[in-house]
Structures are given as structure tokens and as C-alpha cells.
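Researcher: We're reviewing a set of sequences before deciding which ones to prioritize for further study. For each one, I'd like a predicted 3D structure that I can look through quickly. This is Stage 0 sporulation protein A homolog. If possible, include the structure in C-alpha cell form so it fits the rest of the review sheet.
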Amino acid sequence: MRQSILVIEDDSDINDLLKRILSGAGYDVLQSYSWTEALLLLKTATPDLILSDLMLPGMSGEQVFAKLRGEPGSDIPVIILSAKDGITDKVGLLDGGADDYITKPFAPDEVLARVRVVLRRRKKSAPEEALVCKNIAVYPELRRVEVCGQELTLTAIEFDLLLTLMRSPGKVFSRERLYEEVWKDGYYGTDHTVNVHVSNLRKKLKEADPDEEYIQSVYGIGFRLVKS
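Model: Here's the predicted structure for Stage 0 sporulation protein A homolog, in C-alpha cell form for your review sheet.
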């Protein structure tokens, strides 16, 4: 999914230039020429980044930033554009919550580099979205499993088995497919290996949540995660 950037710049030539630079790099660009227009856009869209001129008509830079931070989705990162290059101006805005500051005139490569850095920083700081099924929550990057809100300790193999099933709830996985997905190796008819690890995983899930069945055996085929 392409990331979107809202450009707020009253100079139409600069606004269009920024659109060409960002669109050429694969971003979706929303254009706004005033804060009034930006407000309307932010009511219906949630961009991944805001690139805003410091000096919008009828509003100081400080007022612009206060407006940005007071709107819904105020955690959206903001890069400020300005012809002011004084240290005091930059420090004041960065201390006030701006994520970065680009001085005009700017080079296209600098704009793209700063945009990439801010978006990368935001992605790293965003909380990881869990895979959820009934009372199980799996956090793939953290390799953490919670059942009924309590952390469940699994072996590496058990975690990978559960993660594979959680990514496709209700789908039946053959023992061969599970072996290839988890062990990353060719399948040599080693049903016993898969069965033992699935059995251990089921036992741990049952102990953590006795009232629920999570992994169901499908006779002659393999296993699936029970959705409901």
C-alpha cells in the first residue's frame, strides 16, 4: 500500500513541484494551499506525513503547528518547510514537536531523504499490530503470545506453528505444508515430528484457556485454527 503525504503550501509552483517530486518517488500526494483547505482534508483523510510551509497566509508558524497538533490524527509526523534558516527558528519548531525542518530553496533529493527518514522512524515507533483469534494474541515481530491477556511461553517451533495457523484462520494445513513452512525444509513423510509439536502446542493452549479449542485435527489431512 502506497504511503500518502499531505502538502500544505500556498505557493502553487512549489506545491506542484513537491507533488512531482513525491509522486515520482511512489507516494500518493494530497495538495492543500491553505490551512482551511487542509482542515477539510484532514477530516476525511489520514496521511502518513504532513509537509507544511511555515508561513501560511493569516497564520504564524507557531499557530500552524499548534493547529496541526490539535487536529484528529495529531500523531501524524510533520516536516516544516521554510525560507527561515536561523538556528533559533529551527530549534523552536523542533522543540515544539516538529519531526524535521527543510530550508527553502531545497533539493529534491534532500526532501525525499528527509521524508524517508521520518516515515521510517514512525514505522519503528508504531505499536505492532497483533494477530488475534478469540483469546489469543500473537505479536510476530516480538515473537510474543498472549492467551487471555497472559503471556504464554512457547518453543521456537511451537511459536512458528501457531503463527502459521494464525495467519490463515480456518484454513486446513497439511502436515507437509506445516513442515515446509516451519522447518523450512523438504518434507520426508515425517508426520510424527509435526504431530508431536502440534500436540505440545495444543496442550499449552488448553492449559492457558481450558474453555476454548483452538487447533482442530482434520482427519487424513492436517490441522486448522478454529475461528469461532
